[in-house]
Amino acid sequence: MEKIITTNKLIKRFPMGKGEFTALKGIDLEFGTGEFAGLIGPSGSGKTTLLNILGSLDSPTEGEAMVLGQSVSKLSAKGAARLRKENLGFIFQSYNLLQVHTVFENVEFPLLLLDYTAAERKKMVMDALEWVGLTDKVKQKPPKLSGGECQRVAVARAMVKRPSLVLADEPTANLDAANSHNILKTMENLNRELKTTFLFATHDEKVIGYLKRKIFLKDGLVDKDELVNN
User: Fold this and answer.
1) Within 13 A of 152's CA, how many CA atoms are on the CB side?
2) How many domains does one find in the chain?
3) Which residue ranges in the chain fall short of pLDDT 50?
4) Structural contact between residues 58 and 67, judged by C-beta atoms closer than 8 angstroms
5) Which of 107, 114, 204, 218 has its CA 20 to 30 A from that of 9?
6) Residue 47: which CATH number?
7) pTM for this structure?
């Protein structure tokens, strides 16, 4: 299994008053292609900080994070944007949809930054909406959708370019149990069919139940790393 993420003695500090807060205290982890894994821990454990570094949204204070063969700390702003644009998908708990645009336009948006024709974009968007069961909502706008439908649009937007890695930060936090399970089953299917690596930051038991690998973080350290035998 090809490694797509490697962290080595990863440390992240944030200024706090006259001192600093160490969110990550030396994280050593590896993830391979096609994993369905989660960073698990309470608020303040470091899971979102780690996810942000792996998504090139932030840089480590010390140590190294290699993502798809690139060192996050050595990337320029343009280089980090290119990594995100070409290879990463993001799913957030707040959906982050463009409210005045249709479902089709929301899912198409990441493709506008890449070199695809209009016909290619249309096929890719419709494929992504078929994956999440929303082909009948292409002309709707987010205010007309349910929370579960909005999150499915967010999943389609994250997957439309078939990224190598999807980072999901508490993706079911605003959903009821039934919608949470529908979203998680959809992502599980996409992981299996497209071999996309999914990495979650969560403390939601519903998400944890679907994970194939569980990395428990505590006070900025890896407390436990376990594979799930299915």
Assistant:
1) 26
2) 1
3) none
4) no
5) 204
6) 3.40.50.300
7) 0.93
